[in-house]
Amino acid sequence: MNLEAVSWPAHSATRTVGSADEGRLVKTEAVLEAPASITRLRPYVVDLAEYPKWMPLVHRATPAGPCAWDVELRAKVGPFARSKRLRMERTTDSPQLIVFERRETDGHEHSPWRMTCTMVEHGESVSMRVELFYGGGLWTGGILERVLADHIERGRENLVALVTRSGR
Question: Which pTM does this prediction carry?
Answer without folding.
Answer: 0.82
